[in-house]
Specification:
The structure is a single chain. The protein is an all-alpha fold. Helices cover 56% and strands 0% of the residues. The relative contact order is 0.03.
């Protein structure tokens, strides 16, 4: 390539080569250590490629697994929401039936029948025996309670 030497003034002058190209040495001129390093780098290229392919495969598998788990979670959330709606409907139905039953029971008529027909009377003072249970909320009666009269 012919060497052209000419002079151009100014700061907008184009430079043909901003970075000089490195000079390469022929393979025969390299020392043995450099040759071994080059061989190691070239051999490492295959290992690096295999490791990279393996890492990409593991990452792809992890992404697919994550997406499938996310889909399962979304499906379970939908099932939970449907079951909660069914549960709430059952609670509402139960409350309605309970209110209907309670409205149909007339406590005054029960009291009247118990007192007039069955002979119920209110207890007198001294006829009520209380028992404090420290272990349970109720008392089991294993024998008859004696009369106080």
């Amino acid at each position: 390539m012919p060497d052209r030497n000419y002079y151009v003034e100014g700061n907008t002058v184009r430079k043909l080569s901003a970075v000089p190209s490195p000079k390469r040495m022929p393979a025969e001129e390299l020392n043995p250590k450099t040759k071994k390093k080059i061989e190691r780098v070239l051999a490492f290229d295959l290992k690096y490629t295999l490791v990279l392919v393996l890492a990409v495969g593991v990452t792809f598998w992890a992404c697919i697994s994550m997406i499938s788990v996310q889909a399962e979670i979304n499906a379970q959330n939908k099932r939970i929401a449907a079951l909660e709606a069914d549960y709430q409907a059952l609670i509402n139905d139960n409350d309605a039936v309970n209110a209907k039953i309670n409205s149909e029971v007339d406590l005054e008529s029960i009291k009247k029948i118990a007192m007039e027909e069955l002979g119920m009377i209110y207890p007198k003072e001294g006829q009520i025996i209380t028992y404090d249970s420290k272990k349970e909320q109720y008392v089991k009666q294993y024998q008859d309670v004696p009369d106080l009269d």
